[in-house]
Amino acid sequence: MSRLLGGSTVVVTGGASGNGRAIALTVAEYGADVVVADRRRDPREGGRPTDELVASETDGRATFVECDVTSLDDVREAVGAADEFGGIDVMVNNAGIIKMGHITDLTVEDYEAVMGVNARGVFLGCKAAAERMMEGDGGSIVNVSSTAGIVGVPNNSIYCASKGAVRLLTYALATELGPDIRVNAIHPGTTETQMVTSDVEIVGTEKGERQQESIPLRRFGRPNDVADSVVYLSSDLASYVTGASLVVDGGVLQGIH
């Protein structure tokens, strides 16, 4: 595997499971050391902890930090853990949750929970990373938004609001933190993680099969599709890319527009 990220240290929030797990493993395969920041160490999909896999299956080093992304102290601790490997170079704000339902059924508590993790968590991740990057040689921040942060999805109002906030925060910070810190967003479509197989039950259902047929590439995304996009935006291949929204959805939005 290429050493495209050799010498870099990447912090991944929500790195224990799903897209975050794939991101952590993939950046390590490209030569990075990794801080896995999550509320839990055991992956939701089962198997060995992500930090153990990085250490055993790649040349990268890894550590796990228990982290609630709604806590600035926790996020700063996760960013600080990168000092073990020479300091943070890349921050991947990936942690996210979803609550679906008609707006008349959703509660204020639902709103606060989703916005807390998805919007506040990304803001705090950007803040903590920027503080450290500005002390050094800069770096790259990659925020994981969603296609739901670009177009509205019925019965998904809170999630859309939170991911739209991530998109606009990314644009603002790209201007604010340049030229030494690049800030970009990734917008995955439906991706085969526990969130869509268990939490909202899309993949593996009749509704999911119909949705899949509407995708130009005729499949749902895989965590590695998201991870590969993170590698690009984290690397020098994207040295002239900031304030961008990289859509990783198999062509769905192109068909909508």
From TrEMBL:
Keywords: Oxidoreductase. PROSITE patterns: ADH_SHORT (PS00061). Belongs to the short-chain dehydrogenases/reductases (SDR) family. GO terms for molecular function: glucose 1-dehydrogenase [NAD(P)+] activity; quinone binding. One of its GO terms (biological process) is fatty acid biosynthetic process. InterPro entries: KR_dom, NAD(P)-bd_dom_sf, Sc_DH/Rdtase_CS, SDR_fam. PANTHER family: NAD(P)-BINDING PROTEIN, SHORT-CHAIN DEHYDROGENASES/REDUCTASES FAMILY MEMBER. Pfam families: adh_short_C2. Its EC number is 1.1.1.47. This is Glucose 1-dehydrogenase. Residues 8-189 form the Ketoreductase domain. It comes from Halomarina oriensis. The keyword Ribonucleoprotein does not apply.
